[in-house]
Amino acid sequence: MTEAFDPQALDDLIHGKLRLSIMAYLSGVERASFNEIKARTKATDGNLSVNLRKLEEAGYAFIEKRFEGRKPLTEAGLTEAGRSAWIAYLDQMASLLDQSRPKPQ
After folding, report:
1. Which residues of 72-102 are buried (b: 16+ CB within 10 A; e: fewer)?
2. What is the CA radius of gyration of the chain?
3. Cys bridge to 82: 4, 47, 78, 98, which one at CB 3.0-4.6 A?
4. Taking the CA of residue 73 as centre, how many other CA atoms within 13 Å lie in the half-sphere pointing to its CB?
């Protein structure tokens, strides 16, 4: 049986629309370039940068900057803590969905 849904248990850091999109995309890849994440989430440079930084500060994501040839390359991915937080978030949402389904009579 699924645990009761507790809206207070939802991770507000993940629940924001853009951060939710970032977490969802990064959960399926080892790492992704800034431009790839930007294209997948349809975010602006500034908005993506701010939200990735928030995830990094929370320990949910890592950001690596380097040069490939002479071009700068920024990549991001989920940390172990980020993957755990993502799974906990999905479990909470599954609980909400489970409770909202009509029960067979």
Report:
1. eebbbbbbeebeebbeebeebeebeeeeeee
2. 16
3. 78
4. 11
82 in Cβ contact with 26 (< 8 Å) = yes
pLDDT (tens digit per residue) in 38-87: 999 999 999 999 999 999 999 999 999 999 999 999 999 999 999 999 99
Structure tokens at 104: 């067979």
Unique residue bearing structure tokens 């999109």:
21
Where are the chain's structural domains? 12-95
User: Options 1.10.10.60, 2.40.30.70, 3.30.43.10, 1.10.10.10; which CATH number does 12-95 get?
Assistant: 1.10.10.10
Interaxial angle between packed helices 45-57 and 17-27, expressed in degrees from 0 to 180 and rounded to the nearest 10: 70
pTM of the model: 0.86
